[in-house]
Amino acid sequence: MISKNLTAASTKPIVLAILRQGENYGYQIIRSVREISGGEHDWSEPMLYPVLKRMEKDGLIKAKWKMVENKRFRRYYRLSELGHAELEKEKTQWLTIHAAFSRLLEVKAESR
Amino acid sequence: MFNLEEAIDRWKKAMRKSQAVQDGDLAELEGYLRDKIEDLVGQGMSEEEAFKKAEGEFARADRLDADFFRAQTRKPGRRPPWQAPRFIPSLPWNYLKSALRHFNRQRAYSLINIVGLALGLAAFSLGALTAYVGFHYDAFHKNADRIYGVVQILPSGVQGDQHTAVTPGPLAPAFLKEFPEVEEAVRFFPSFQRVVRFETKKFYEDRIYYADSRFLSLFSFDRIAGNMDTALAEPNSVVLTETAAARYFGAADPIGKHLIFVDDQDRVVTGVIKDVPFDSSLGFDFLISLTSYPESRLNSWRTNSSSSFVLLKRGADPRLLEAKLPGFIAKHMSGSPDSPKGLYLLPLTSFFHRPFNLRSHLASNSPVELYIAIAFGFIFLLLVSVNYTSLSIARCLNRIKEVGIRKVVGAGRNELLIQFLGESVFLSFTAWLLSWPIFELLRRAYASLFGEAEGAALSLWKHPPILLLALAVALLVGIVSGLYPAFLLSAVRPVRILKGDLSSGKKGNRARKILVAVQFVIAIFLVLSSIAVRRQFDYLLGLDLGFNRTNVLVVPVSDESRALLGPLQDSLRRQPGIISVGGASYLPVKAGGQTRVLPEGAAAQDAWLMDAFPVDYGFLETMNIGLQAGRYFSPDYADAGQNRFILNAAAVRQLGWAEPVGKTLTVENRTGMVIGVVRDFHFCNLIFRIPPTVLVLSPESNRYLFIKYADSQSASSIRPVVEKLWDIHAPLIPFEAWRLENVFDEAYGDMKKMGLMFGAIGLFTILFSCMGMLGLVSFILNAKTKEIGIRKVLGASANRILRQLMTEFVSLVAIADAIGIAAACWVWSKIFRLYAYSSKIQFGAYLLVALLSLIIVGTAILSKTLSAARQNPVDSLKYE
Question: What ipTM was reported for this prediction?
Answer without folding.
Answer: 0.87
